[in-house]
Specification:
The complex is a heterodimer.
Chain A (H helix, E strand, L loop, with lengths): L3 E4 L2 E5 L4 E7 L6 E7 L6 E6 L3 E5 L2 E6 L4 E6 L8 E8 L8 E2 L3 E6 L1
Parallel strand pairs in A: 2-11
Antiparallel strand pairs in A: 1-3, 3-8, 4-5, 4-9, 6-7, 7-8, 9-10, 9-11
Chain B lengths: L4 E3 L2 E4 L5 E6 L6 E7 L5 E8 L2 E5 L1 H6 E4 L6 E5 L8 E8 L6 E2 L3 E5 L1
Parallel strand pairs in B: 2-11
Antiparallel strand pairs in B: 1-3, 3-8, 4-5, 4-9, 5-6, 7-8, 9-10, 9-11
Amino acid sequence: QQKVQQSPESLIVPEGGMASLNCTSSDRNVDYFWWYRQHSGKSPKMLMSIFSNGEKEEGRFTVHLNKASLHTSLHIRDSQPSDSALYLCAASKGSALGRLHFGAGTQLIVIP
Amino acid sequence: NSKVIQTPRYLVKGQGQKAKMRCIPEKGHPVVFWYQQNKNNEFKFLINFQNQEVLQQIDMTEKRFSAECPSNSPCSLEIQSSEAGDSALYLCASGTANTEVFFGKGTRLTVV
């Protein structure tokens, strides 16, 4: 079964709105979380990573991590149509070189 | 931008045929991963290498796939006898201890 659960499966937000995506790992051995974005027909590209409890912001993107519950969330403010993509959460043990356990993704659609 | 090069982009094989795909990792990246992404966007880890040595692989990879990362040559992943269920996007990724993992554009395999 999936060790990394993402919700919702799909999300529609209006242009300029806030998109909130969730991810939880059931494997307590992981300690690094990664958010990737994959546009249709393209390869996944890393958006943000987080290893410590708390919040990290980069531009319109904010990621939160609660290590006790192994829950991370990604928030996109002022969503743009170009943000429409599959958002993948991945968890690993140790550094970037640990095997990544991916969730099934959240399909985000931003409507102009 | 990722410099992980995968070839071919598309591959069509009949059931029972061999299917081989290649990956040139980004220069200076000692660790290479292969993942399979199915039509439901689910990722399955297949195998990873550090330099030329296998670090981890799943049971399926051990039995039906062969993979290698020789020095001074592209890495390769070969399915010995393709099955319909092998139809997927095969993604190669590379990284170092101090960077994220970068993905190539993938090889889309269709087994007819």
